[in-house]
Design goal:
Blueprint lengths: L7 E5 L5 E5 H4 L5 E6 L6 H12 L1 H4 L3 E7 L3 H11 L4 E4 L4 H5 L3 E6 L2 E6 L2 E5 L5 E5 L7 H9 L4
Parallel strand pairs: 3-4, 4-5
Antiparallel strand pairs: 1-2, 1-5, 3-8, 6-7, 8-9
Amino acid sequence: MEKAKDFCLPGIDENGREINFCLKDYLGKGKDIILYFYPKDDTPGCTTEACDFRDNFNLLKDYAIVVGVSPDSIENHKKFKEKYGLNFILLSDTEKKVMQEYGAYGEKTMYGKKTMGVIRSTFIIDTDGNIKKAWKNVKAKGHVDQILKFYGVKK
């Protein structure tokens, strides 16, 4: 299994408080980490995915801590979290360094044109820091169902 790359990023915790999140601090706590990368707060696809995590949080919380990462600022995250009642951690990777390390930023094709941007991706990291599962180029709608299926959770 591949080891997850350690990182620290500023963000907002599940209660809306500003935090400095370091992956190593959350390992070994008896739960996986669902680390998902998304392009932009409050856009149609990203809102669909975030609300899906929010709505299925009770089914996931026994297995994992949910952590969303985008290039948006902490201020944008606060507004996004408040507007949709998001109940999980959001991190700000404004320099896109962590995204690049995880292969979640790079060349992609949108509407037939090649462009640089965030590649919607999700990683499940176990308590020892290993990547148990990785999804690249995911579709926002229905992706949380794939994660639930991975854990064997029925809706």
